[in-house]
Specification:
Rossmann fold, seven-stranded mixed sheet, two-stranded antiparallel sheet
Length: 254
């Protein structure tokens, strides 16, 4: 089956990231990357288990922290935990992020893969005060050049800087003149470690998929190193097809 068919066969909660929780250490890495501090009002859009809120308040001393998610059960649970810790400047909202008021934000963690949601939220972000920081994981804000990158963490600061092309955006993100297999593998592996699966086989499978996605996108944009398909890419394309019945070669522009 084509990779698109494989992805569509997975539960929507996996594709959307709803069932993927960021570890406390990953949250801390993100906060250090974005230089979160006592002057900030922090929002986590799609906060899930809500671990980012007490960490931002207790360890990074932000003025205020708000988690927003549409999962009512999760929101009620994490709000109760926050109340038990007697943390007054943190809160959770069971809301759609598109309609939520985030106008006082200075730092926002935004990790979504749905292009429609991303497009609507970019319009919302553009109306925020100058200097507001939006940090994403893996995927940049569509059409804009990041202000800072420590892959898979990507930071855009308002007002956003328009990218001339997807090619320009990718070169800035990967900080290289061309992308070869080793670069694609390194960056895919960083992402796999950040989202943290306890199953090593699952992590390696994700790394293989993401490596191929990175390299194929680079090839189609003309920023892959060399004209030929590297032997490791050929091997992994073959492994996916032979052992997992997943076909990705059609993604290559011929």
């Amino acid at each position: 089956m084509k990779i698109e068919d494989y992805l569509s066969s997975l539960p929507s909660s996996i594709i959307s990231g709803e069932d993927v929780e960021l570890s406390d250490n990953t949250i801390r890495e993100i906060f250090r990357f974005v230089e979160l501090n006592e002057n900030d009002v922090f929002y986590h859009l799609g906060c899930g288990s809500g671990n980012s809120i007490p960490i931002s308040l207790q360890e990074f001393r932000v003025k205020k922290a708000i988690g927003i998610d549409t999962n009512k059960d999760k929101i009620e649970h994490v709000q109760k935990l926050l109340n038990e810790k007697h943390i007054s400047n943190g809160s959770f909202r069971c809301q759609d992020i598109i309609s939520s008021d985030i106008s006082d934000a200075t730092v926002i963690l935004f990790w979504f893969s749905d292009e429609k949601i991303i497009e609507k939220m970019i319009s919302k972000f553009e109306n925020l005060k100058n200097g507001c920081k939006i940090v994403t994981i893996w995927g940049p804000l569509t059409g804009y050049l990041p202000d800072k990158v420590d892959f898979p963490y990507i930071l855009n600061v308002t007002p956003f800087k328009k990218a001339k092309s997807l090619r320009e955006q990718m070169l800035v993100i990967f900080n290289t003149d061309c992308i070869d297999f080793s670069v694609a593998w390194e960056f895919a592996d960083r992402y796999s470690k950040v989202i943290g699966s306890k199953n090593l086989e699952n992590s390696r499978f994700l790394t293989i998929l993401q490596t191929l996605v990175i390299w194929i996108n680079a090839k189609n944009l003309g920023i892959a190193c060399g004209d030929d398909i590297p032997d490791p890419v050929k091997s992994y394309i073959g492994i996916l097809k032979t052992f997992f019945n997943i076909e990705v070669e059609h993604l290559l522009d011929h």
